[in-house]
């Protein structure tokens, strides 16, 4: 009885048991609360969570599982894990329970089979729990797979663009310019192989692809400021050393915390060449149009000038013929005649510039003409200039006017001598023949459409000062000269003569080293005919009536006096209409007509047709300041009796009258 607890001790023990029971109930409640919280957490998880017992029976499935599998929770709890995968999928990727028993976490990617038979890609993580159950979580990878597919397709497209693009594409590190990759076009354009470039610095010795390092520095500066560059023109150096002009665009790309530059470069060298050619052609066209306009002006001035000179030379010839040789005025008349001849030469140069300066066309040997001019050329150049000749003997003929060819040669040689100046130098005069294609002929200073074929050339080269770029585009302009006393008609006349002969001019010059001017003339198959010696001229004495037609009164007056000196009576008219009225009345007694080509109201060509309609046997001499070839083309096969170029002398008029009256 002594060992039994007292009521106080029993009360104390009861209180302790009650406290322990309270704490146990509290712990149970906390466990229930924790369990509920974990259950809610698992149920609300975005990933599918399944708990099961080996060999795969499902004992728990969260809400996401029903969404992913399309099975209800009850259906899932009656299924085995393996039923969520097709047989082929299980063969492809078996469920490795043995690895779970070994304590391993098994991670796999596989396709889950839904209740409706559709499949969905998932990432599956499984682990064995301490109580012997397994825990599996499924993550829907549809979006990730789609993103990966989009990325794969994008990368494939980029790869195709990168490697198949006709433009050069490179990926370089921005800090040092090291090449990470280049495409095939880069190799083809630059000449470098991928193995030679990738891994090397673009500025490294042995590669040094940038022709100017500052171009890359400019590109990098723009990239750091704006992130991209568009349409930057730069020069690059190919493997063979040639310079490649490129138009590049570039953009900053971040890869693994490193900054790179993706550059696309288009080779615009060919385009630049075409642009340069186009610009040159446009300049040539503008130059040709300007020179053509000046040529029309020069031709018009020369035509009027020749009419004035006609009166001066005609009166001078008549005065010399009528005065006795011992007259004191004879020397004055000789000087007047000489000055008028020089003025006529100046007019001829203006006509030559206008392209209307060919007078007597015949097959000529260019080398022979130069040989005949050797003496006059030697006294025309500076004493410090040495003339050297390289003349081809077996040279095809050219159909040209001998006087005009002599003018070309003289002007080119004198210009070469002026370029040498007071220094010692050499002037090389050479001739030859060459076959010219359309491309070669296109690059000339006349911009005429010349026919490809065999050409004869005259080349005058000097070791003088060369031609400045500012002057080279103007040397063919009339009245432009770099010489203090120059009239500026020399090279203008050369251009006009060459244009009139359907030729070309090429210029090669370098300041301080000299110039070479090459004149090309179409070769002819005609043989050069020997020149007849001049025969003695007897004084013409005739009778009869001549119809004189010219719109210039002074020309009509001097013409009437000249004809009177030969014994003719004259009927005169100032235009074609007036001439036609006279001819209708007096055509039976008119022995021939001396008529100007260019007149107001009715020109010479139309008047000639009317004369021939009235009298088919009428003899007409056409007078013009222009060239005989142009007149011959207008009247070819129409019965023109003859041609006289203004200003003509008394002797020339006499020879022409003799010629037509003897026909």
In a nutshell, what does this entry contain?
The protein is α+β, with helices and mostly antiparallel strands. 45% of the residues lie in helices and 23% in strands. It contains 22 helices and 22 strands.
- The count of helical stretches stands at 22
Residues in β-strands, percent: 15-25%
Rg from Cα: 53 Å
| Bulk shape | rod-shaped
**CATH architectural designation of the largest domain:** 2-Layer Sandwich
- Average pLDDT over all residues: 82
Number of DSSP-assigned strands: 22
Distance from first to last alpha carbon: 187 Å
Could you give a short account of the major beta sheet? 5 strands, antiparallel
Helix content: 40-55%
The fourth-level CATH homologous superfamily of the largest domain is Histidine kinase-like ATPase, C-terminal domain
Total domains: 6
Low-pLDDT segments: 484-488
The CATH class of the largest domain turns out to be Alpha Beta
List descriptors.
22 helices; single chain; 5-stranded antiparallel sheet; 22 strands; Beta-Lactamase; alpha+beta; 23% strand; 6 domains; 663 residues
Give the SSE map.
Layout: H1 7-43, E1 48-53, E2 57-61, H2 63-69, H3 73-77, H4 87-92, H5 97-101, E3 106-113, E4 119-128, E5 134-140, H6 142-164, E6 168-173, E7 179-182, H7 184-190, H8 194-197, H9 213-226, E8 228-237, E9 243-255, E10 258-267, H10 269-322, H11 329-353, E11 362-364, H12 366-372, H13 374-380, E12 385-390, E13 398-400, H14 402-420, E14 425-436, H15 438-442, E15 453-462, H16 469-472, H17 490-500, E16 504-510, E17 514-522, E18 545-549, H18 553-565, E19 569-573, H19 576-586, E20 590-596, H20 604-614, E21 620-624, H21 628-635, E22 642-645, H22 650-662
Parallel strand pairs: 12-14, 18-19, 18-20, 20-21, 21-22
Antiparallel strand pairs: 1-2, 1-5, 3-4, 4-5, 6-7, 6-10, 8-9, 9-10, 11-13, 14-15, 15-17, 16-17
């Amino acid at each position: 009885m002594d060992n039994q607890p007292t009521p106080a001790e029993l009360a104390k023990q009861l209180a302790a048991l009650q406290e322990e029971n309270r704490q146990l109930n509290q712990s149970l409640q906390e466990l229930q609360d924790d369990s509920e919280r974990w259950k809610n957490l698992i149920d609300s998880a975005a990933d599918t969570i399944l708990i099961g017992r080996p060999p795969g029976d499902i004992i728990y499935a969260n809400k996401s599982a029903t969404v992913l599998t399309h099975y209800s929770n009850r259906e899932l709890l009656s299924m085995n894990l393996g039923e969520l995968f097709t047989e082929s999928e299980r063969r492809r990727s078996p469920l490795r329970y043995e690895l779970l028993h070994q304590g391993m976490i098994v991670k796999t990617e596989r396709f889950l089979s839904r209740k409706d038979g559709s499949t969905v890609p998932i990432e599956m993580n499984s682990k064995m729990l301490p109580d012997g159950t397994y825990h599996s979580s499924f993550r829907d990878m549809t979006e990730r797979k789609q993103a990966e597919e989009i990325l794969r397709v994008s990368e494939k497209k980029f790869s195709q663009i990168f490697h198949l693009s006709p433009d050069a594409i490179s990926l370089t590190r921005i800090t040092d310019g090291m090449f990470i990759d280049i495409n095939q076009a880069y190799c083809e354009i630059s000449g470098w192989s991928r193995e030679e470039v990738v891994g090397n610095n673009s500025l490294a010795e042995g590669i040094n692809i940038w022709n100017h390092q500052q171009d890359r520095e400019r590109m990098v500066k723009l990239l750091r400021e704006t992130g991209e560059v568009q349409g930057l023109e730069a020069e690059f150096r190919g493997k063979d050393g040639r310079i490649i002009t490129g138009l590049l665009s570039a953009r900053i790309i971040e890869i693994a915390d490193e900054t790179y530059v993706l550059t696309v470069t288009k080779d615009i060298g060919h385009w630049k060449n075409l642009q340069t050619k186009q610009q040159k052609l446009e300049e040539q066209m503008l130059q040709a149009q300007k020179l053509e306009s000046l040529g029309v002006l020069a031709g018009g001035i020369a035509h009027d000038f020749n009419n004035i000179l006609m009166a001066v030379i005609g009166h001078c010839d008549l005065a010399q013929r009528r005065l006795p040789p011992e007259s004191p005025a004879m020397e004055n008349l000789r000087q007047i005649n000489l000055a008028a001849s020089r003025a006529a030469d100046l007019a001829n140069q203006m006509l030559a510039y206008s392209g209307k300066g060919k007078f007597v066309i015949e097959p000529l040997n260019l080398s022979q003409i130069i040989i005949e001019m050797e003496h006059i050329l030697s006294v025309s150049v500076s004493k410090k200039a040495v003339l050297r000749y390289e003349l081809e003997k077996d040279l095809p003929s050219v159909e040209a006017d001998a006087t005009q060819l002599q003018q070309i040669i003289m002007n080119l040689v004198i210009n070469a001598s002026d370029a040498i100046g007071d220094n010692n130098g050499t002037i090389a005069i050479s001739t030859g023949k060459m076959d010219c294609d359309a491309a070669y002929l296109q690059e000339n200073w006349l911009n005429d459409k010349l026919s490809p074929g065999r050409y004869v050339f005259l080349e005058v080269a000097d070791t003088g000062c060369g031609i400045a770029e500012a002057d080279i585009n103007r040397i063919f302009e009339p009245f432009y000269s770099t010489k203090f006393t120059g009239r500026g008609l020399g090279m203008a006349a050369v251009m006009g003569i060459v244009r009139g002969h359907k030729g070309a001019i090429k210029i090669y010059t370098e300041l301080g080293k000299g110039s070479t001017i090459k004149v090309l003339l179409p070769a002819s198959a005609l043989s050069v005919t020997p020149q007849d010696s001049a025969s003695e001229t007897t004084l013409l004495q005739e009778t009869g009536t001549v119809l004189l037609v010219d719109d210039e009164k002074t020309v009509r007056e001097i013409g009437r006096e000249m004809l009177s000196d030969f014994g003719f009576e004259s009927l005169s008219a100032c235009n074609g209409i007036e001439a036609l009225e006279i001819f209708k009345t007096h055509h039976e007694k008119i022995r021939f007509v001396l008529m100007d080509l260019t007149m107001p109201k009715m020109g010479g060509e139309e008047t000639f047709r009317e004369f021939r309609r009235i009298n088919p046997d009428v003899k007409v001499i056409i007078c013009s300041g222009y060239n005989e070839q142009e007149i011959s083309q207008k009247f070819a096969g129409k019965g023109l009796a003859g041609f006289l170029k203004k200003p003509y002398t008394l002797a020339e008029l006499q020879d022409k009258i003799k010629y037509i009256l003897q026909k």
